[in-house]
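Morning!

This is the sequence you dropped in the shared folder:
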Amino acid sequence: MNTPNPRLESARCARLLTLCAVLASITVLLMFGIFAAAGIGQDPLQYVHPAAEYARILLRNPPVLRLVIGLDNLFIVFYCTMFMALGSLLWRSGRPRLLVGAALGLLSLSGLLDLAENMHFLTMLSAAVQGLEIGATEIGLQVLESLVKFHVSYFGLFLLGWVLPGETRLEKALCFALRWVQLPVGLAIYLVPAGLAVPLVITRFAFFVLALWALALVFRMRESGSGAPV
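The structure's back. Tokens below.
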């Protein structure tokens, strides 16, 4: 019977984390590129609109919208796997286990809510393509799903900022951003007038991409021995 090697298992988790962080960031950039080039994405569907306007957004380009949702489903797989690997590393390292478990639980829940949101988008898109009416109640439910998803993820990322290693400058910067940048920016998006929310949404997007790359770099450096041990 083979005895598990903790160092080997940690190295495997670190490699999985870095791989999924890179793949997740690439997927986000592809979705943003499609939105910038064609104006097609989920963001406009995460706000309340009159039923006719909501249907118009859905039907602007159904094949491209399905592509974006498919990419987002890949993103969910990548970031959930990344957080699972990260949780394993933090758990093994002796970080505060209550906070690690809470952060991982919230981020896993946000992934499930994200997937439910996407399935609802696809359901409404199929209905709109067939000429069926999308009612105000269903639109309100969709927006509620999006709001809950984002706010659960903000909470999980905030907790993550208190359990990640913070020895190097990069690690300290990442922890600071998780605690004091993403949370206020994310909350403010839904509290300010719509016109002022656009730069905040762009800031949130930039944070996600940079945080994914920072996580990949942090744990790549730790795996190679150039950073402090987890």
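Headline: The chain has a mean pLDDT of 94.

More detail when I'm at my desk.
O.
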